[in-house]
User: Fold MSS51 mitochondrial translational activator from Marmota marmota marmota.
Amino acid sequence: MAPRLPRRRHKKSPTVAPVVVIPLTVVTPLPLTLSKPGPSIDAHGFFSLDSNVPGLSQLILQKLNMKSYEEYKLVIDGGIPVSGFGFQCPQEMFQRMEDTFRFCAHCRALPSNLSDSKVLRHCKRCRNVYYCGPECQRSDWPVHRKVCQELRLVAVDRLMEWLLATGDFVLPSGPWPWPAEDVQDWNTWFSMRGLQIDATLNAIIGSHAMTSLWASVGRPRPDPDDLKGSLRRLLTDVLSRPLTLGLGFRVLGIDVRKTGGSAVHVVGASHVETFLTRSGDYDELGYMFSGHLGLHVIMVGVDVSADFLHSTSASPLEPGTVQLSGHRSLYHDFWEEQIETGKIAYPDMVVAFHPGFHASLNLMEAWLPTLLLLRDYKIPTLITVYSHQELAASLQILVNLDIHVTAYGANPFTSLKPEQVYSNPNKQPVYCSAYYIMFLGPAR
Ligand SMILES: [Zn+2]
Ligand SMILES: [Zn+2]
Assistant:
Protein backbone atom coordinates (compact mmCIF):
# COMPACT_ATOMS: atom_id res chain seq x y z
CA MET A 1 0.00 0.00 0.00
CA ALA A 2 1.29 3.45 -0.82
CA PRO A 3 2.20 5.54 2.23
CA ARG A 4 -0.32 8.16 3.20
CA LEU A 5 -0.05 11.33 5.14
CA PRO A 6 -0.73 10.71 8.82
CA ARG A 7 -3.64 12.76 10.09
CA ARG A 8 -4.86 13.60 13.47
CA ARG A 9 -8.49 12.60 13.67
CA HIS A 10 -11.14 12.32 16.23
CA LYS A 11 -12.03 8.94 14.98
CA LYS A 12 -9.37 6.35 14.89
CA SER A 13 -7.73 6.36 11.50
CA PRO A 14 -6.30 3.35 9.74
CA THR A 15 -2.62 2.70 10.27
CA VAL A 16 -0.61 4.96 8.03
CA ALA A 17 3.03 5.15 7.11
CA PRO A 18 4.74 7.08 9.89
CA VAL A 19 6.75 9.62 8.02
CA VAL A 20 5.72 13.19 7.56
CA VAL A 21 5.27 14.10 11.17
CA ILE A 22 8.95 14.40 11.84
CA PRO A 23 9.33 17.88 10.44
CA LEU A 24 6.53 19.00 12.70
CA THR A 25 8.58 18.28 15.78
CA VAL A 26 11.62 19.83 14.21
CA VAL A 27 9.78 22.91 13.16
CA THR A 28 7.73 23.66 16.22
CA PRO A 29 10.47 25.60 17.98
CA LEU A 30 11.21 27.79 14.96
CA PRO A 31 8.68 30.50 15.67
CA LEU A 32 10.76 31.33 18.69
CA THR A 33 13.60 32.62 16.63
CA LEU A 34 11.52 34.33 13.99
CA SER A 35 7.92 33.78 13.22
CA LYS A 36 5.27 34.55 10.68
CA PRO A 37 4.18 36.30 8.53
CA GLY A 38 5.89 36.84 5.18
CA PRO A 39 6.81 34.12 2.74
CA SER A 40 10.53 34.13 3.45
CA ILE A 41 10.42 34.32 7.22
CA ASP A 42 10.30 30.61 7.84
CA ALA A 43 13.33 30.02 5.65
CA HIS A 44 15.10 32.72 7.62
CA GLY A 45 14.15 31.01 10.87
CA PHE A 46 15.33 27.68 9.59
CA PHE A 47 18.75 28.89 8.60
CA SER A 48 19.11 31.03 11.70
CA LEU A 49 19.49 27.72 13.55
CA ASP A 50 23.02 27.80 12.15
CA SER A 51 23.93 30.94 14.05
CA ASN A 52 23.69 28.94 17.28
CA VAL A 53 24.92 25.62 15.94
CA PRO A 54 26.86 25.97 12.68
CA GLY A 55 25.79 23.28 10.21
CA LEU A 56 22.59 22.33 12.05
CA SER A 57 20.24 23.10 9.16
CA GLN A 58 22.23 20.82 6.87
CA LEU A 59 22.24 18.07 9.49
CA ILE A 60 18.45 18.24 9.74
CA LEU A 61 17.96 18.05 5.99
CA GLN A 62 20.40 15.19 5.68
CA LYS A 63 18.85 13.17 8.49
CA LEU A 64 15.38 13.66 7.11
CA ASN A 65 16.49 12.60 3.63
CA MET A 66 15.82 16.01 2.15
CA LYS A 67 17.90 17.87 -0.37
CA SER A 68 16.97 21.46 0.34
CA TYR A 69 14.97 23.83 2.47
CA GLU A 70 12.47 24.03 -0.39
CA GLU A 71 11.79 20.35 -0.02
CA TYR A 72 11.45 20.73 3.73
CA LYS A 73 9.03 23.61 3.20
CA LEU A 74 6.97 21.49 0.82
CA VAL A 75 6.56 18.89 3.54
CA ILE A 76 5.39 21.50 6.01
CA ASP A 77 2.93 22.72 3.42
CA GLY A 78 1.66 19.18 3.08
CA GLY A 79 2.49 19.18 -0.61
CA ILE A 80 5.19 16.53 -0.95
CA PRO A 81 4.70 12.87 -1.73
CA VAL A 82 5.56 10.98 1.39
CA SER A 83 7.09 8.18 -0.66
CA GLY A 84 10.04 10.51 -1.24
CA PHE A 85 11.45 9.99 2.25
CA GLY A 86 12.56 6.43 2.15
CA PHE A 87 12.66 5.52 5.82
CA GLN A 88 12.68 1.74 6.06
CA CYS A 89 10.83 1.35 9.35
CA PRO A 90 9.64 3.31 12.41
CA GLN A 91 12.91 2.52 14.21
CA GLU A 92 14.88 4.26 11.50
CA MET A 93 12.53 7.23 11.48
CA PHE A 94 12.77 7.77 15.25
CA GLN A 95 16.54 7.32 15.08
CA ARG A 96 16.86 9.93 12.34
CA MET A 97 14.62 12.29 14.25
CA GLU A 98 16.73 11.90 17.35
CA ASP A 99 19.87 12.46 15.29
CA THR A 100 18.66 15.94 14.41
CA PHE A 101 19.12 16.80 18.11
CA ARG A 102 22.63 15.40 18.22
CA PHE A 103 25.01 18.28 18.77
CA CYS A 104 27.08 19.20 21.82
CA ALA A 105 24.97 21.51 23.97
CA HIS A 106 28.14 23.14 25.27
CA CYS A 107 30.66 23.55 22.42
CA ARG A 108 28.05 23.09 19.60
CA ALA A 109 30.07 20.37 17.85
CA LEU A 110 28.13 18.21 15.38
CA PRO A 111 28.98 14.51 14.94
CA SER A 112 30.91 15.39 11.78
CA ASN A 113 33.19 17.72 13.78
CA LEU A 114 34.35 14.99 16.16
CA SER A 115 37.41 12.82 15.91
CA ASP A 116 36.76 9.12 15.29
CA SER A 117 37.16 8.06 18.89
CA LYS A 118 34.53 10.50 20.17
CA VAL A 119 30.74 10.14 20.15
CA LEU A 120 28.01 12.45 21.38
CA ARG A 121 26.29 11.05 24.47
CA HIS A 122 23.04 12.30 25.98
CA CYS A 123 22.53 13.66 29.48
CA LYS A 124 21.37 10.63 31.46
CA ARG A 125 18.72 12.60 33.31
CA CYS A 126 16.82 14.29 30.52
CA ARG A 127 17.96 12.27 27.48
CA ASN A 128 17.48 15.45 25.57
CA VAL A 129 20.83 17.25 25.24
CA TYR A 130 24.08 15.75 23.99
CA TYR A 131 27.73 16.25 24.91
CA CYS A 132 30.94 15.48 23.05
CA GLY A 133 32.63 14.46 26.29
CA PRO A 134 32.67 14.68 30.10
CA GLU A 135 34.49 18.04 30.06
CA CYS A 136 31.74 19.73 28.09
CA GLN A 137 29.06 18.07 30.19
CA ARG A 138 30.69 19.22 33.42
CA SER A 139 31.19 22.79 32.24
CA ASP A 140 27.61 22.91 31.00
CA TRP A 141 25.95 21.61 34.17
CA PRO A 142 25.55 24.93 36.02
CA VAL A 143 23.46 26.18 33.07
CA HIS A 144 21.84 22.91 32.09
CA ARG A 145 20.71 21.97 35.60
CA LYS A 146 18.13 24.76 35.51
CA VAL A 147 16.33 23.20 32.54
CA CYS A 148 17.27 19.50 32.73
CA GLN A 149 14.05 18.52 34.51
CA GLU A 150 11.83 20.36 32.06
CA LEU A 151 13.77 19.08 29.04
CA ARG A 152 13.13 15.54 30.23
CA LEU A 153 9.42 16.23 29.76
CA VAL A 154 10.07 17.74 26.35
CA ALA A 155 11.88 14.59 25.21
CA VAL A 156 8.94 12.39 26.26
CA ASP A 157 6.32 14.70 24.74
CA ARG A 158 8.19 14.80 21.44
CA LEU A 159 7.79 11.04 21.05
CA MET A 160 4.28 10.86 22.45
CA GLU A 161 3.14 13.47 19.92
CA TRP A 162 3.42 10.71 17.39
CA LEU A 163 0.25 9.14 18.83
CA LEU A 164 -1.67 12.32 18.06
CA ALA A 165 -0.43 12.34 14.51
CA THR A 166 -1.35 8.73 13.85
CA GLY A 167 -4.80 9.15 15.40
CA ASP A 168 -4.10 6.69 18.21
CA PHE A 169 -4.57 9.43 20.80
CA VAL A 170 -8.16 10.52 20.37
CA LEU A 171 -9.01 13.67 22.29
CA PRO A 172 -11.95 13.48 24.69
CA SER A 173 -14.89 15.25 23.13
CA GLY A 174 -18.62 15.83 23.52
CA PRO A 175 -20.85 18.45 25.17
CA TRP A 176 -19.67 19.96 28.43
CA PRO A 177 -21.46 18.44 31.42
CA TRP A 178 -20.84 21.62 33.45
CA PRO A 179 -22.05 25.17 32.84
CA ALA A 180 -19.34 26.98 30.87
CA GLU A 181 -19.06 29.70 33.56
CA ASP A 182 -17.69 27.06 35.90
CA VAL A 183 -14.86 26.23 33.53
CA GLN A 184 -12.44 29.13 33.65
CA ASP A 185 -9.07 27.37 33.44
CA TRP A 186 -7.35 24.01 32.93
CA ASN A 187 -7.95 22.89 36.50
CA THR A 188 -11.69 23.18 36.19
CA TRP A 189 -11.62 21.83 32.66
CA PHE A 190 -9.75 18.71 33.80
CA SER A 191 -12.15 18.29 36.73
CA MET A 192 -15.11 18.55 34.40
CA ARG A 193 -13.76 15.98 31.96
CA GLY A 194 -12.14 13.95 34.76
CA LEU A 195 -13.63 10.48 34.35
CA GLN A 196 -13.66 10.69 30.60
CA ILE A 197 -9.98 11.69 30.52
CA ASP A 198 -8.95 8.96 32.93
CA ALA A 199 -10.64 6.37 30.75
CA THR A 200 -9.09 7.81 27.59
CA LEU A 201 -5.58 7.98 29.00
CA ASN A 202 -5.71 4.50 30.53
CA ALA A 203 -6.86 3.08 27.22
CA ILE A 204 -3.99 4.73 25.34
CA ILE A 205 -1.42 3.69 27.88
CA GLY A 206 -2.53 0.09 27.57
CA SER A 207 -2.76 0.21 23.77
CA HIS A 208 -0.74 -1.61 21.19
CA ALA A 209 0.20 1.75 19.66
CA MET A 210 1.88 2.79 22.91
CA THR A 211 3.78 -0.47 23.15
CA SER A 212 5.01 -0.28 19.59
CA LEU A 213 5.95 3.39 19.96
CA TRP A 214 8.32 2.64 22.84
CA ALA A 215 9.60 -0.48 21.15
CA SER A 216 10.54 1.67 18.15
CA VAL A 217 12.24 4.61 19.82
CA GLY A 218 15.09 2.75 21.43
CA ARG A 219 14.79 4.16 24.93
CA PRO A 220 13.13 2.87 28.10
CA ARG A 221 9.39 3.35 28.39
CA PRO A 222 8.57 5.88 31.14
CA ASP A 223 6.26 4.78 33.94
CA PRO A 224 2.46 5.18 33.53
CA ASP A 225 2.31 8.40 35.56
CA ASP A 226 4.91 10.02 33.33
CA LEU A 227 3.05 8.87 30.24
CA LYS A 228 -0.21 10.24 31.63
CA GLY A 229 1.46 13.54 32.43
CA SER A 230 2.70 13.75 28.87
CA LEU A 231 -0.70 12.94 27.36
CA ARG A 232 -2.28 15.62 29.51
CA ARG A 233 0.27 18.18 28.36
CA LEU A 234 -0.30 17.22 24.72
CA LEU A 235 -4.00 17.56 25.25
CA THR A 236 -3.61 21.10 26.56
CA ASP A 237 -1.35 21.87 23.64
CA VAL A 238 -3.98 20.90 21.07
CA LEU A 239 -6.92 22.42 22.94
CA SER A 240 -5.13 25.60 23.96
CA ARG A 241 -5.99 27.28 20.67
CA PRO A 242 -9.76 26.60 20.58
CA LEU A 243 -10.15 27.38 24.28
CA THR A 244 -8.13 30.58 23.93
CA LEU A 245 -10.54 31.61 21.18
CA GLY A 246 -13.30 30.89 23.66
CA LEU A 247 -11.60 33.07 26.25
CA GLY A 248 -11.55 35.85 23.67
CA PHE A 249 -15.26 35.39 22.93
CA ARG A 250 -16.03 35.61 26.63
CA VAL A 251 -13.86 38.56 27.58
CA LEU A 252 -14.55 40.56 24.43
CA GLY A 253 -18.27 39.80 24.76
CA ILE A 254 -18.76 38.29 21.30
CA ASP A 255 -22.36 37.39 20.51
CA VAL A 256 -22.42 33.70 19.56
CA ARG A 257 -26.15 33.66 18.97
CA LYS A 258 -26.00 35.84 15.92
CA THR A 259 -28.20 34.72 13.04
CA GLY A 260 -25.97 33.14 10.44
CA GLY A 261 -23.28 32.33 12.97
CA SER A 262 -20.12 34.08 14.16
CA ALA A 263 -16.73 34.20 12.51
CA VAL A 264 -13.25 34.39 13.92
CA HIS A 265 -10.23 34.97 11.70
CA VAL A 266 -6.91 33.51 12.80
CA VAL A 267 -4.41 35.89 11.24
CA GLY A 268 -0.84 35.06 10.32
CA ALA A 269 -1.74 31.39 10.47
CA SER A 270 1.01 29.04 9.32
CA HIS A 271 1.83 25.35 9.45
CA VAL A 272 1.91 25.72 13.25
CA GLU A 273 -1.85 26.27 13.30
CA THR A 274 -2.76 24.22 10.26
CA PHE A 275 -0.42 21.27 9.73
CA LEU A 276 -2.28 18.13 10.86
CA THR A 277 -5.15 20.29 12.09
CA ARG A 278 -8.60 18.86 11.49
CA SER A 279 -12.01 20.40 11.95
CA GLY A 280 -12.78 18.33 15.04
CA ASP A 281 -9.86 19.98 16.85
CA TYR A 282 -12.02 23.06 17.41
CA ASP A 283 -15.16 21.27 18.57
CA GLU A 284 -14.25 22.17 22.13
CA LEU A 285 -14.87 25.82 21.27
CA GLY A 286 -18.42 24.93 20.29
CA TYR A 287 -19.01 22.99 23.52
CA MET A 288 -17.93 26.06 25.45
CA PHE A 289 -20.88 27.97 23.99
CA SER A 290 -23.88 25.69 23.96
CA GLY A 291 -26.70 27.14 21.91
CA HIS A 292 -24.40 28.98 19.52
CA LEU A 293 -25.64 29.46 15.98
CA GLY A 294 -22.51 28.28 14.18
CA LEU A 295 -18.86 29.23 14.58
CA HIS A 296 -16.59 29.67 11.59
CA VAL A 297 -12.83 29.75 12.17
CA ILE A 298 -10.93 31.00 9.12
CA MET A 299 -7.14 30.57 9.08
CA VAL A 300 -5.50 33.30 7.03
CA GLY A 301 -1.78 33.33 6.29
CA VAL A 302 0.74 32.77 3.53
CA ASP A 303 1.94 29.55 5.15
CA VAL A 304 -1.42 27.86 5.72
CA SER A 305 -0.69 24.23 4.87
CA ALA A 306 -1.97 22.93 1.54
CA ASP A 307 -3.22 19.81 3.20
CA PHE A 308 -5.37 21.92 5.51
CA LEU A 309 -6.78 23.91 2.58
CA HIS A 310 -7.79 20.70 0.84
CA SER A 311 -9.24 19.08 3.93
CA THR A 312 -11.70 21.83 4.71
CA SER A 313 -14.67 23.08 2.76
CA ALA A 314 -16.85 26.10 3.12
CA SER A 315 -20.32 24.61 3.21
CA PRO A 316 -23.11 26.71 4.77
CA LEU A 317 -22.64 27.16 8.50
CA GLU A 318 -25.08 25.10 10.56
CA PRO A 319 -26.18 26.18 14.05
CA GLY A 320 -24.26 24.29 16.73
CA THR A 321 -21.36 23.37 14.45
CA VAL A 322 -17.79 24.63 14.26
CA GLN A 323 -16.36 24.99 10.80
CA LEU A 324 -12.72 25.49 9.79
CA SER A 325 -11.39 26.85 6.55
CA GLY A 326 -8.24 28.51 5.28
CA HIS A 327 -6.97 31.23 2.94
CA ARG A 328 -3.40 31.56 1.77
CA SER A 329 -2.87 35.27 1.90
CA LEU A 330 -1.60 38.19 3.96
CA TYR A 331 -4.46 39.50 6.04
CA HIS A 332 -4.60 43.00 4.62
CA ASP A 333 -4.78 41.49 1.10
CA PHE A 334 -7.44 39.05 2.26
CA TRP A 335 -9.34 41.99 3.70
CA GLU A 336 -9.28 43.85 0.39
CA GLU A 337 -10.08 40.86 -1.78
CA GLN A 338 -12.58 38.99 0.36
CA ILE A 339 -14.09 41.28 2.96
CA GLU A 340 -14.30 44.62 1.20
CA THR A 341 -15.80 42.92 -1.83
CA GLY A 342 -18.45 41.33 0.41
CA LYS A 343 -17.46 37.74 -0.37
CA ILE A 344 -16.78 37.12 3.30
CA ALA A 345 -18.46 38.85 6.23
CA TYR A 346 -16.62 41.04 8.73
CA PRO A 347 -15.04 38.97 11.48
CA ASP A 348 -16.62 39.01 14.94
CA MET A 349 -13.14 38.56 16.36
CA VAL A 350 -9.60 38.35 15.03
CA VAL A 351 -6.92 36.25 16.72
CA ALA A 352 -3.17 36.02 16.15
CA PHE A 353 -1.19 33.31 17.92
CA HIS A 354 2.35 34.58 18.55
CA PRO A 355 2.41 37.29 15.89
CA GLY A 356 5.92 38.16 17.06
CA PHE A 357 5.81 41.78 15.87
CA HIS A 358 7.84 42.80 18.90
CA ALA A 359 10.73 40.62 17.73
CA SER A 360 12.04 42.50 14.72
CA LEU A 361 11.49 45.46 12.45
CA ASN A 362 10.76 43.15 9.53
CA LEU A 363 7.96 41.46 11.38
CA MET A 364 6.63 44.78 12.60
CA GLU A 365 6.50 46.03 9.03
CA ALA A 366 4.66 42.92 7.95
CA TRP A 367 2.10 43.27 10.74
CA LEU A 368 1.61 47.03 10.66
CA PRO A 369 -1.07 47.19 7.92
CA THR A 370 -3.06 44.48 9.70
CA LEU A 371 -2.79 46.11 13.13
CA LEU A 372 -3.91 49.47 11.77
CA LEU A 373 -6.76 47.88 9.88
CA LEU A 374 -7.98 46.07 13.00
CA ARG A 375 -7.73 49.29 14.97
CA ASP A 376 -9.54 51.44 12.43
CA TYR A 377 -12.33 48.96 11.76
CA LYS A 378 -12.69 48.40 15.54
CA ILE A 379 -12.41 44.62 15.25
CA PRO A 380 -12.24 42.85 18.65
CA THR A 381 -8.79 41.28 18.61
CA LEU A 382 -6.82 38.83 20.72
CA ILE A 383 -3.12 38.05 20.38
CA THR A 384 -0.95 35.64 22.34
CA VAL A 385 2.73 35.70 23.27
CA TYR A 386 5.20 33.27 24.82
CA SER A 387 6.51 35.22 27.79
CA HIS A 388 6.04 38.09 30.18
CA GLN A 389 8.84 39.93 28.44
CA GLU A 390 7.09 39.58 25.08
CA LEU A 391 3.87 40.71 26.72
CA ALA A 392 5.47 43.94 27.91
CA ALA A 393 7.14 44.63 24.56
CA SER A 394 3.95 43.94 22.59
CA LEU A 395 1.80 46.12 24.87
CA GLN A 396 4.21 49.00 24.37
CA ILE A 397 3.95 48.69 20.60
CA LEU A 398 0.15 48.60 20.67
CA VAL A 399 -0.01 51.65 22.91
CA ASN A 400 2.37 53.48 20.58
CA LEU A 401 0.04 52.65 17.70
CA ASP A 402 -2.77 54.32 19.62
CA ILE A 403 -4.61 51.03 20.01
CA HIS A 404 -7.04 50.62 22.88
CA VAL A 405 -5.88 47.62 24.90
CA THR A 406 -8.87 46.26 26.81
CA ALA A 407 -7.35 43.31 28.69
CA TYR A 408 -4.14 41.35 29.09
CA GLY A 409 -2.66 38.75 31.39
CA ALA A 410 -1.69 35.13 31.91
CA ASN A 411 -3.76 32.84 29.70
CA PRO A 412 -5.78 30.34 31.78
CA PHE A 413 -5.74 28.06 28.71
CA THR A 414 -2.03 28.26 27.90
CA SER A 415 -0.42 25.14 26.52
CA LEU A 416 1.19 23.20 29.37
CA LYS A 417 3.66 21.50 27.04
CA PRO A 418 7.15 23.00 27.37
CA GLU A 419 8.77 24.09 24.11
CA GLN A 420 12.49 23.73 23.83
CA VAL A 421 14.46 26.30 21.90
CA TYR A 422 15.78 23.88 19.36
CA SER A 423 19.24 25.19 18.59
CA ASN A 424 19.76 26.48 22.13
CA PRO A 425 18.38 23.76 24.41
CA ASN A 426 19.63 25.34 27.63
CA LYS A 427 17.40 28.33 27.12
CA GLN A 428 14.38 28.27 29.45
CA PRO A 429 11.57 26.37 27.68
CA VAL A 430 8.48 28.42 26.89
CA TYR A 431 4.75 27.70 26.67
CA CYS A 432 2.54 28.47 23.70
CA SER A 433 0.02 31.24 24.25
CA ALA A 434 1.20 31.75 27.83
CA TYR A 435 -0.12 35.35 27.83
CA TYR A 436 -2.83 37.17 25.93
CA ILE A 437 -3.61 40.73 24.94
CA MET A 438 -7.03 41.91 23.79
CA PHE A 439 -7.72 45.19 22.07
CA LEU A 440 -10.55 47.06 20.43
CA GLY A 441 -10.33 50.14 18.25
CA PRO A 442 -8.31 53.34 18.74
CA ALA A 443 -7.31 54.65 22.14
CA ARG A 444 -9.45 57.76 21.71
ZN1 LIG B 1 31.42 19.73 23.42
ZN1 LIG C 1 19.76 16.87 31.25
